[in-house]
């Protein structure tokens, strides 16, 4: 049976939104407890600030999430085809910054996909095992109806209770589930 892994970048392979909130503090001199507070404060202009963040080049230097590199290597050792997926916008150098970040951090993957919205890439193969990791339910929900699919939601609060989706806050947790 073929095996595929679909892994989101922001919030899974890095520490988003914390890295964005740190950027706001350092470059805009504003501090927020969470992403929602940022959106409320900036109102409709929040998208302009996000675009400034995206085009700043900061995504080339983000810290990789602990154990993500090792987990991707483990997937490779278990013969997974690894698809990295992101809904990062096509502005300035975001695409090249993203590829640079992946390669510079020696993250193992086969193909990098840029999608317009979460859940916009559907891999359908009834004879395959598919593992999907995202920090947004919209990236997971399209896969709920397929068999042989494991879905992992990266979240700090494990109170999301949706059948077929496992909440995790570390790659070690996912590794425990997938090694069983």
Descriptive report:
- This protein is about 30% helix and about 20% strand.
- The model has no long low-confidence stretch (mean pLDDT about 90).
- Strands 3-2-1-4-5-6 form a six-stranded parallel β-sheet.
- The protein folds into two domains: about 130 residues, Rossmann fold (3-Layer(aba) Sandwich); about 45 residues, no CATH class.
- It contains six helices and six strands, in the order βααααβαββββα.
- The chain is an alpha/beta fold and about 180 residues long.
Work out the helix count: 6
Task: Categorize the overall geometry.
Answer: globular
CATH superfamily of the largest domain: HAD superfamily/HAD-like
> Based on the structure given, which CATH architecture of the largest domain is correct?
3-Layer(aba) Sandwich
Share of residues in strands: 15-25%
Tell me, rounded to a whole number, the average pLDDT.
92
**How are the strands of the biggest sheet laid out side by side?**
3-2-1-4-5-6
**Count of DSSP E strands?**
6
* CA-CA gap between termini: 17 Å
Compute the number of structural domains: 2
CATH topology of the largest domain: Rossmann fold
Stretches with pLDDT under 50, minimum 5 residues: none
The succession of helices and strands, N to C, reads EHHHHEHEEEEH
Rg calculated over all Cα atoms = 16 Å
Largest sheet: 6 strands, parallel
Q: What is the structural class?
A: alpha/beta
């Amino acid at each position: 049976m073929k095996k595929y892994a679909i892994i989101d970048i922001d919030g899974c392979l890095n520490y988003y939104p914390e890295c964005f909130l740190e950027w706001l503090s350092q470059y805009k001199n504003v501090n927020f407890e969470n992403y929602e507070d940022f959106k409320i404060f900036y109102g409709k202009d929040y998208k302009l600030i996000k675009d400034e963040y995206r085009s700043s080049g900061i995504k080339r230097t983000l810290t990789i999430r602990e154990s993500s590199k090792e987990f991707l290597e483990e997937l490779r050792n278990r013969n997974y085809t690894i698809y990295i997926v992101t809904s990062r916008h096509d502005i300035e150098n975001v695409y090249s910054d993203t590829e640079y970040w992946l390669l510079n951090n020696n993250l193992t993957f086969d193909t990098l996909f840029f999608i317009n919205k979460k859940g916009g890439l559907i891999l359908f193969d009834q004879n395959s095992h598919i593992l999907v990791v995202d920090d947004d339910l919209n990236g997971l929900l399209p896969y709920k109806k397929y068999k042989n699919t494991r879905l992992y939601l990266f979240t700090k609060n494990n109170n999301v209770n949706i059948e077929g989706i496992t909440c995790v806050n570390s790659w070690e947790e996912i590794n425990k589930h997938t090694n069983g």
